[in-house]
Amino acid sequence: MLIQGDWRAEGRAAKIKAILRAADDKVTIESDAGLLFSGVISDLKASARIGNVERKLTLLDDSIFATSDNDGIDLLFKQSQPFLHFVHRLESRIGWVAIALVLTIAFSFGSIKWGIPWISVAVAHALPHKTNELIAVQAFDFLDEYVFEESELNEEKRTSINAHFNDTLLPIAKHQRGLKFTLHFRRWQQDGQDIPNALALPSGDIILTDKFVELSQNQNEIDAVLLHEIGHVVHRHSLQRVIQGSLITTVVMMITGDISSIADIGLGLGSLLVSSEYARDHESEADLYAFETMLQAGIDPIAFSNIMTAMTRYFEKYDDSIEGSKPAYVEPDMTKKSSNKDDSLLDYISSHPVTSLRIERANRYSKCFRQNLKVCQ
């Protein structure tokens, strides 16, 4: 086999006309001045074929043999490097290129939609509780500095809710897995308007805002939301969210065992908790945790429906002044007036289930409660 081309020494721009000769596995490159290279095919490194662009062979001494005879180079490497020949054949057929493009898009979509969430669940449950605490400290500091104010609830009310939470509610909560829960009270104002909400940090710290307590008509309504937040902690939802946003950092931390920088992720979590909502499957999972626990504990899930309705009405009343500050329990667009035609679209693009559907689910569990059922199918 003969392949004509140009040869140039390493670091030189000057080219010399040369001929590559190959027989079996032996290769030589010669010019009019004499022998330039002698060796075997495995000594050569060929650049990938891109259309009819000139190919370059890198020799052992880093000199270059360049040629436009792409077919000759393919034939030269066909036996010793069949994979490169196979790749070129695929790249030369538009049908295979189209299939490869579709598969690439499908793989990328699948990785984002299912792969990353699955990995985030596995990593969240694999991390030690110390990691949760480190993240929570930074997140709490962020919230206290930029979002919350000191609670104005009277001491008697806070003491009563706290005592009930520790003595009555926590003993009935399921699957706590050694988690330590602590209740905190804060005032949250935005644009002069009090925000009713509850937030759960991965450490088990749960924050109730003054306005949320004010809107609650009884202890059962507070308990329903607290159980919902406990569900988020048990299933490590907030940790999953921040891991998805910091996946590479978290994985590297797990591999190296260095958790010195993990606390910085808490700043991102603090921002996430006040700027966006949980994914709809996280909200549904936390809802079900609350409803199932309420049935077992003898608490009517209608309480969850009632507090959801109260919060929705509150935001409907003050929508214009607090746009963009809706809590995790309220569908982001529920306070906007829209036609029935738009509701299905809002449900589809929303980050968690439509409030009306969540209220409907709570009402269904309430019917099971009235029938003295401990499990609601």
What does this structure look like?
With 377 residues, this protein is α+β, with helices and mostly antiparallel strands. The protein folds into three domains: 2-88, Pleckstrin-homology domain (PH domain)/Phosphotyrosine-binding domain (PTB) (PH-domain like, Roll), CATH 2.30.29.30; 93-126; 128-370, no CATH class. It is built from 14 helices and twelve strands. It has helices spanning 70-77, 82-91, 94-126, 129-146, 155-172, 210-215, 219-234, 237-245, 247-256, 265-275, 280-297, 302-317, 340-349, 355-370, and strands at residues 2-8, 16-23, 26-31, 34-40, 45-46, 55-58, 64-67, 148-150, 182-190, 193-194, 198-200, 205-209. The strands form two sheets. Strands 4-3-2-1-7-6-5 form a seven-stranded antiparallel sheet. Strands 8, 9, 10, 11 and 12 form a five-stranded mixed sheet that branches. A hairpin with a 2-residue loop joins strand 2 (16-23) and strand 3. Helix 4 packs across helix 10 (265-275) and helix 8 packs across helix 10 (265-275). Mean pLDDT is 77; it is low at 263-276, 322-326 and 328-353.
User: Secondary-structure element sequence?
Assistant: EEEEEEEHHHHEHEEEEHHHHHHHHH
Helix content: 40-55%
Give the CA-based shape. Answer: elongated
List low-confidence stretches.
263-276, 322-326, 328-353
Largest sheet composition:
7 strands, antiparallel
The DSSP helix count reads 14
Q: How confident overall, as mean pLDDT?
A: 77
